[in-house]
Write a structure and sequence with these properties.
Structural class: mainly beta
Number of strands: 31
CATH superfamily of the largest domain: Nucleic acid-binding proteins
CATH architecture of the largest domain: Beta Barrel
CATH class of the largest domain: Mainly Beta
CATH topology of the largest domain: OB fold (Dihydrolipoamide Acetyltransferase, E2P)
Shape: elongated
Number of helices: 6
Oligomer: single chain
Length: 528
């Protein structure tokens, strides 16, 4: 019996030792080209780290996909998927071009083979194989690129095409001149990882990467990461010319561009039209449901792209992010000239000065512009329509300067000025003082204007609304506020001057009548 216990304990110890060895033993080092011979086995490989992408599908995974190249033949590559929640970040990774060891399980799926690695020690740099990038210039690199083959370098140049933020891999040429036609040297770059924002073509950058000869395309190229790209000077948009043909425009696809023109609606499609009948460019408008049709602008800004649905080159214009126009002070077109001969100015853009006739507020961006601050003294009044969004009203009597497109409105048989480029050219008019004793027929001319009126604020008997009462009389006018203005006074409310906008409000009692009210919300009060 004692012998049996000894044999049992010895067997148990042997099994525990074998299991411990299986756990702690070093995986076999295999060549990258031999990986298909070890399916579902855990192995180790040695190679050159050529690229990596963090979270390749943008779904929040703590995963990095890497490419590791066989250092012996220069073209056999292993794909590595390294996962470890809460640990992996850019600072843990060796420089591109470093010699690394990778441990992981070989996975086969749908004809693809990769190394599935996890844990902190799954990828590490070979001791004594650290990479220190050296500084060089495009001209030095061009003199003898073989001298830099297999080396990590830092170089400055200009991006040959626009870089988008939503791509995990993209390639471009790094040029020694912002202009493609004027560049003497161009280096092909394969950039891995997402950049943070759009970088326009022609932007000057500093880039660190690894130089390798591409035997397939017979050229030298640089492997680099988006985290190693530093923008030193960002380029602005490219100015397009209507004389350019489709072939010329194709070189600017993906770039931010500007062009002048008039926005037209043609058979349900939006087009930018130039000075001649044949000048046209497909337009895609975002940022509004009501694009400014028939409006001319000296600078439309957008990104040029190929539209598969329309099978043509289009300009994607975001109206919320357009450059602030500079309205010239010279060459003013008089309102009287437009009124005397509207067809002479129709369908063209003009710089116009005048005064707002009645308030134009964000909920209704239409009104009139006239040649004098007070309508009784003016001779000309023309309809205007504003596009885009506004946060504040244009007050009556406000002097403005704008660039507008003169249009003949066939339906209403009148001339209309359409604009989104309007500037205040004088001080904001003050409040109109109302006088007790005047009837509604007198006050209605001040409707929608900013007014002020002295009186005593009170709540009605049922507490449903507030009114402003003339001292010593029963004359009242409705007040719209937050509902607490009357209750703020502990005793009898004093006689004060209240400021607001004069509006016509439906009767709160549910009848078909209406109240003339002063809306004091958003207006600072002054006490008299």
């Amino acid at each position: 019996m004692a012998r049996m216990w000894v044999m049992f304990l010895t067997s148990l110890l042997l099994v525990m030792t074998m299991n411990f060895y299986a756990v702690v033993r070093e995986p076999d080092l295999v060549d990258i080209e031999d990986l298909p011979n070890y399916p579902r086995e855990t192995v180790k490989i040695e190679g050159i780290l050529t690229s990596w992408i963090r979270d390749p599908y943008g779904d929040g995974d703590d995963r990095i996909d890497m490419q590791v190249m066989d250092p012996n033949d220069g073209y056999t590559v292993a794909e590595v998927r390294w996962v470890k929640n809460g640990y992996i970040n850019e600072s843990n990774l060796p420089e591109i071009g470093s010699i690394v060891y990778v441990e992981g399980e070989i996975v086969e799926w749908n004809g693809s083979i990769w190394l599935q690695s996890s844990g902190r020690g799954a990828v590490y740099q070979k001791e004594g194989a650290a990479v220190a990038p050296s500084w060089t210039s495009m001209s030095e690199l061009a003199k003898d690129p073989r001298e830099f083959e297999g080396e990590s370098i830092t170089v400055e140049g200009y991006v040959g095409k626009a870089l988008a933020p939503n791509l995990t891999r993209q390639s471009f040429y790094l040029q020694d001149n912002p202009s493609y036609s004027n560049a003497d040297h161009m280096l092909y770059v394969r950039l891995e990882g997402r950049v943070l924002e759009h970088y326009e073509a022609g932007s000057k950058v500093r880039l660190t990467g690894w130089i390798l000869f591409d035997s397939r395309n017979l050229r030298f190229q640089m492997f680099s990461q988006s985290t190693n790209l530093i923008v030193q000077q960002e380029a602005g948009p490219v100015h397009l010319r209507w004389s350019a043909d489709a072939t010329t425009l194709s070189y600017d696809i993906g770039k931010m561009v500007t062009i002048d023109g008039t926005l037209r609606s043609e058979s349900g499609n939006l087009m930018l039209r130039g000075p001649t009948e044949d000048d046209g460019l497909c337009a895609i408008i975002t940022g509004t449901d009501n694009p400014p049709i028939d409006e001319y602008r000296s600078k439309w800004e957008g990104r040029l792209r190929w539209d598969n649905g329309k099978a043509t080159i289009c300009m994607d214009i975001d109206l919320e992010n357009q450059p602030t126009p500079e309205i010239p002070r010279e060459n003013i077109t008089e309102l009287e000239d437009i009124a005397l001969d509207p067809f002479r100015y129709a369908n063209s853009s003009h710089t116009i000065e005048g005064y707002i006739s009645n308030p134009i507020c964000p909920d209704y961006l239409k009104g009139y512009i006239q040649d004098y601050p007070v309508w009784t003294a003016g001779m000309v009044q023309i309809r205007i329509e504003l596009s885009g969004a506004r946060s504040e009203c244009l007050e009556a009597g406000q002097s403005v300067r704008m660039i507008g497109t003169v249009v003949w409105d066939v339906e209403d048989a009148r001339v209309v000025i359409r604009t989104s480029e309007i500037n205040l050219s004088g001080p904001t008019p003050g409040y109109v003082t109302l006088t007790w004793g005047e009837s509604y027929s007198d006050w209605r001319w001040e409707e929608n204007k900013r007014v002020e009126l002295y009186g005593i604020i009170e709540e009605t008997e049922n507490g449903t609304k507030q009114v402003l009462r003339q001292p010593g009389t029963n004359r009242t006018i409705c007040i719209i506020g937050d509902g607490t203005e009357a209750s703020q006074f502990a005793g009898e409310a004093p006689t004060l001057t209240w400021r607001g906008r004069l509006i016509l409000e439906n009767d709160m009692g549910g009848t078909s009548s209406a109240w003339t009210c002063i809306d004091i919300r958003g207006h600072s009060q002054t006490w008299a």
